[in-house]
Amino acid sequence: MTNQLKNKLLEIKGLKTYFYSDEGVVPAVDGVDITIREGETVGIVGESGCGKSVTSLTTMRLTPGKVVEGSIHFDGKDILALTDDEMRSIRGNDMAMIFQEPMTSLNPVFTIGEQIGEATRIHFGYNKPKAKSHAVEMLKLVGIPRPEHIVDEYPHQLSGGMRQRVMIAMAMACEPKLLIADEPTTALDVTIQAQILDLMRKLRAEKNTAIMLITHDLGVVAEMCDRVIVMYGGKVVEESDVVTIFTNPKHPYTQGLMKSIPSLEVEERRLYSIKGNVPIPGSLRDGCTFAPRCEFAMENCRKDAPQLMEIEPGHVSRCWLHTP
Ligand SMILES: Nc1ncnc2c1ncn2[C@@H]1O[C@H](COP(=O)(O)OP(=O)(O)OP(=O)(O)O)[C@@H](O)[C@H]1O
Ligand SMILES: [Mg+2]
User: Fold this and answer.
1) Domain boundaries, the chain
2) Closest residue (by CA) to atom 19 of ligand 1?
3) Cis (ω within 30 of 0) for the bond into 272?
4) Which CATH architecture has domain 3-83+212-322?
5) pLDDT tens digits, residue range 88-106?
6) What is the position in ligand 1's atom list of the atom closest to the CA of 231?
7) Which of 78, 187, 197, 317 is the most buried (most CB within 10 A)?
8) Alpha carbon of 23 to ligand 2 centroid (Å)
């Protein structure tokens, strides 16, 4: 079945998440549309500060920012309209997240086994022993040594890399319909990284899990994703299937990202080396957010902001170069 025919699982429309402080307003996410279909893996890329984490946290209703506009529908539910209780029953069950900062999602007063088991007891109705043995199984899957022992330990007894893997085990334990993974493997060594990606592939193949994969690693994007969304300054600037993004990127920003991929001999695959800096959110008034760094910038780029335009079916770009 082609992706176009699958049901939409997540549909984010016109989302704006802003932060307010004494210094002013930070429009961290500034009108984002994202659709993820059942079983689909969608990559979100873009430089530091472009709004990737805030977008994902807003989807889980975990951001301290204020949603000022837009809608989020997940599995037939209006996420922004749910009560806190309703949201809690979705989080960790149908929709689970692997965070950039593992400590934020682990509770210091419960053992690893209790934390992984808690969700499966609710979700699958497991009793205590069954939940514990399943937790051991999950720990084994993410490559934790001596899982029978670790299952009774507390988060502070583990190293950062181990905590990251525990969090991944926890997120996957309930076989969520949507897994949101924010830099899931960045902190881990290469062997473990490969294991975790394998595990995500397995979950996807066996359970048809959809994945929102936020990463700086374009190698991971190429390996894992069906579609790619490129963000810049709180907005989507380009979106297409993964092959097109690598072979025929249209937005000057995406082209810059692709040029900044080091050669294959180089191990280091982190982005990016486009001239200039990411704009401070809220610092730009008129025109395209990328214009100050764009080598193709024209007169109207600095005056009017371009809209997302469809260049070919399934491929959109936010650039005056592609706007008739
Ligand atoms: N709690 C917060 N309070 C105020 N501003 C915030 C907060 N969280 C994020 N921001 C701002 O929102 C913008 C987007 O941040 P976000 O964390 O989404 O970036 P990102 O794309 O995930 O970057 P990275 O690749 O470094 O993780 C940034 O300018 C950031 O400073
Ligand atoms: Mg982030």
Assistant:
1) 3-83+212-322
2) 49
3) yes
4) 3-Layer(aba) Sandwich (3.40)
5) 889 888 999 988 766 667 8
6) 21
7) 317
8) 22
